[in-house]
Each structure stands twice: as C-alpha cells, then as structure tokens.
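> agent: user asked for a holo structure of the chain below bound to manganese (II) ion. Plan: (1) validate sequence alphabet, (2) canonicalize SMILES, (3) run complex prediction with ligand conditioning, (4) return tokens. Step 1... ok. Step 2... ok. Step 3 dispatched.
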Amino acid sequence: MGSSGFSWKLNDHPKLPKGKTIAMVVLDGWGEAHANQYNCIHIAETPTMDSLKKGAPEKWRLVKAHGKAVGLPTDDDMGNSEVGHNALGAGRIFAQGAKLVDSALETGKIYDGEGFNYIKESFATGTLHLIGLLSDGGVHSRIDQLQLLLKGASVRGAKRIRVHILTDGRDCLDGSSVGFVETLENDLVKLREKGIDAQIASGGGRMYVTMDRYENDWEVVKRGWDAQVLGEAPHKFKNAVEAVKKLREIPNISDQYLPPFVIVDDSGKSVGPIVDGDAVVTMNFRADRMVMLASALEYEKFDKFDRVRYPKIRYAGMLQYDGELKLPSKYLVSPPEIDRTSGEYLVHNGVRTFACSETVKFGHVTFFWNGNRSGYFSDKMEEYVEIPSDSGITFNVQPKMKALEIAEKARDAILSRKWDQVRVNLPNSDMVGHTGDINATIVACKAADQAVKMILDAIEQVGGIYVVTADHGNAEDMVKRNKKGEPLLDKNGNIQILTSHTLEPVPVAIGGPGLAPGVRFRTDVPTGGLANVAATVMNLHGFEAPSDYETTLIEVVDK
Ligand SMILES: O=C(O)[C@H](O)COP(=O)(O)O
Ligand SMILES: [Mn+2]
Ligand SMILES: [Mn+2]
C-alpha cells in the first residue's frame, strides 16, 4: 500500500477460484432487436450466438450500451466503440468527450482554458482553421458544437475563419451531408455579415479523407493534408454545397467516400490553405480517427507521408487524443480521466492478458479498453497482437474481414495456456453494417459467429470460461425508423438504409466448463450496462472488484 493508502491489490473473491482461462469476446456492433428482414443478425446463420441465447436463462442477458449508461449526454445518443470499450474496460461510467465539450461550451470555460488562449494568439494576424466531421452523429463530433465554437471564437477576435469539413453518412443517414453543409453555410453568411471573413475551404468524405484510424492507411490522411494544408485537391468548386451535391453524383460515391475538394476563388486559387502564423483546431472530440492528423500537425519530425510544407501554426485538439503520448499537447477541453482500468488492476494482480483484433478495431480492445491509453501496462504480463486489415476497400466487398484470423490467434493463445485472459474484438457486424449493404452484413454476422465458435471450442478444451458481449448495436437494425418503429421511406418510396449504430441493448453471455456451478446472472441489476461487465470479469478471474466499480452482474449460489 502506498503512502496515499491506495493499493492495486484486489481482494480475493470469497467463492470463485483463480487461474481459469477467460475468453473475453466483443462483437462490434451486435445489438439485440426484433426479428425482421432488416435485422441482419436474425437473418444470418448464427448457431453459436443463438445457442448462447437459447441456453440457460441465467447465463445470457441484455445490458445497456447507449446514452447515459455509457457517459453520453442523453439517452437519445446511440452507443459507439469508444464509450462502449471505455465502459467495458474501466468498469465505471465517465462523462465522455461529447458531454465534456457540451458543458465547456455551455459554461464558457472552453474559452478560459490554456488551449483556447494559445490559439487566440494567432487571431490578430492569422486565420483560424477548424477541421472535423460535419454531422449531428455525436460519435466523433457534433455540428452544434462547431456552431457554438464559431460564434465564440469570432466574438473573441477571430477575424478570418476557414472550415475544413469531412462529410459523414456513417453516424447519420447517407445524403444528410448536403443539409449539414447548408446549415454551416448559413452560419458563415451571418458571420460574414458581421465583417468576419468566414468560409468553408475544403472537404471530403470521412472514410476517404483524413479520418483513417490505427494507421491502417496513411494515404487517407495525406489526401486531407493536401486539401486542408496545401490547398490542393483533384476537385475544385466555388462553394461547398455545390461540391457535395456534384461529387455525390459520381457512381457509387456516398457521403462517407466523397473525394477531396477545395473551394477556390474567382482566380482559381484555393481560399484556405494553412500557412505560417495560422491557428488550427481539430474539432472532433473522439480520438481514434483524429490522432493521425494530430501527429502530422504537431510533430516537427514526421515520416508517414511527405507533407511538402509544414506550416508553423498554433494547433489545438478539441480534446487531447492520447494521454500517454500527450498528443496534441494543446487542447480546448480536458478528456475524461479514465484511471484504474480493469486491465491495469489485473496486471497488478498477476493476470496475464492477450488481446487481439485486426487493425481497424485493434485500438478498441487495447487503447479504448485501457482508458484511451496506448501501450502496455506491463510488457511481461501482456501481449497485444494486431492483424493487418484490408485497406483501400469498403468492407462490404470483404465481409468476412479477418474474423477467422482473429479467432485462430485467440484459439492458439487459449490453447497455449500462457494467458489468463484472451480478449478480442470481432469487427464484422459493425464495419460491414456501416456500409449499409444488407446482404454483405448478413455474411459478416455469420463470419463473426463462426469466429465465436472457434474461440468457445478452445475454451472448452482448456476448461475455461467465456464472456461474450458487444459494444453497441448496428447490424441488428439496418433501416431508419419513425417514432412508431416503422421503416421510413425516401421520396422515391425506397427504404432509408441505416448505416449508423443503434440504441439497442447488447447481449452478455457467460459459460464454459470453468464456470463454477453456482454462477448465474443476478436479477437485481435490471438496468445493468456495459460498465457492469468489468466487475463481472474480475470476479471470474477470482477477485472482487474495487468498491467504486459498477456492480457485478453475477452471483454465486450454493449448488
Ligand atoms: O468511426 C466509426 O467507424 C464510426 O463513426 C463509429 O463506429 P465505432 O464506434 O464502432 O468505431
Ligand atoms: Mn464499435
Ligand atoms: Mn461502428
């Protein structure tokens, strides 16, 4: 015990043994919803997940994965990977980025902080650039936060403002980008009426421009850099509404995949390259898809792509995206302080952990799981394996993704008996669900189910325990619905495909030959959410959870 009285030592669980191998499986984007034709999980052949659901009722339950249960501002906010994995790993509910930015804007504290005062120094002579995702999705950013920030910065001296937009269609309906750009344009007109030179300067679809993650494809970030910083892009337009409308006409191009464009003046010159003396804010609060650009903006030494020009700017993130790397060093709002995560506790208590996913979800079971912290707690006690994802494709063309490879790695790790916890994320239902391709999503769900089977078979062989859950819904509902729950049609009478996550709960299943006979889900935690899983898993490792963790979902009755 340290001088503060704090100790990493966990108490022994009074009834549950240590030393069982636990498979901790997170199905990304696998919610529970009514069985119908838009529920890809229902339509897909998923015998393994079906058998868990149809098995002992005290070994399968649903938990909340959205809204306040995962630290989001309201219960109308769908879940997402960041908040879901944070809750799963940290065992407590933290006010998340979306909420922290809301309150910093509401109280005005955002303008008193070090980050804003730092960028403000450039307002007199330089341009303020805002780069980020333009939608109301609330997963990475929110347009109303941008609107408030634009107002707030302009009354505090920003005279020249350029917005570099990334169109969404992934956390909101495809096609909705046109409306968001119109809304932003209206705000910019109002600023111009007040004498502020404010314009959209560049844009592109989030999946093709800037918002790659976990270094899957630096080309994506480079395309954004060229448009935002250098002012160069294959498509040039006089205004952004026209840009988005025209680029959407390209066959097979949706909001997520719009090619990069720049806005040019009458002489054909781009209106807003980033130059020496400017201020830049990346306005996403969520880290995974902004931290690559953050490194390009922040680091003098950088070799991921040729930046051609590296302007001397004052740069701040909406949040600090990586607490370990302290990146970026300047930020407008402090991120949630997610400390004492279950991973860190377990390492201190002798639990050896193996974690694996493919690139596009690798940071979910490592970085997000560990409270947005990169790296190992202990390189002797942990091993994290990343399987390279396909890049340069939309995942509906490869819906099986690397599920089999992830399962094989997990199986081998389990059978090696070197690890006490083998943790994976299976991305299929989420990544393919986001494409809106129903047939491909059905294939994706089946592939994920087969991967679960391989992992459960290995657990069977070593006498271990499994915990199978998900981080939020996605593939279980692929259609936008009205308040009554009926599918919405567009003007042509076609159903509106839902590419985003949902508000649905997710399953938690426990079992395996190593599960002590009297273990069952309690019935007195009916409102349980993802944050209750950490204490549950600690119990299954033979420990009691820290007292401030959300309560465990299980109890042990005498058999
Ligand atoms: O970043 C994404 O792909 C989506 O905005 C959210 O999906 P995720 O939360 O499952 O990563
Ligand atoms: Mn997810
Ligand atoms: Mn997703």
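> agent: step 4 complete. Summary for user: Residues 21 and 420 are 5 Å apart (CA to CA). The first strand starts at residue 22 and ends at 27.
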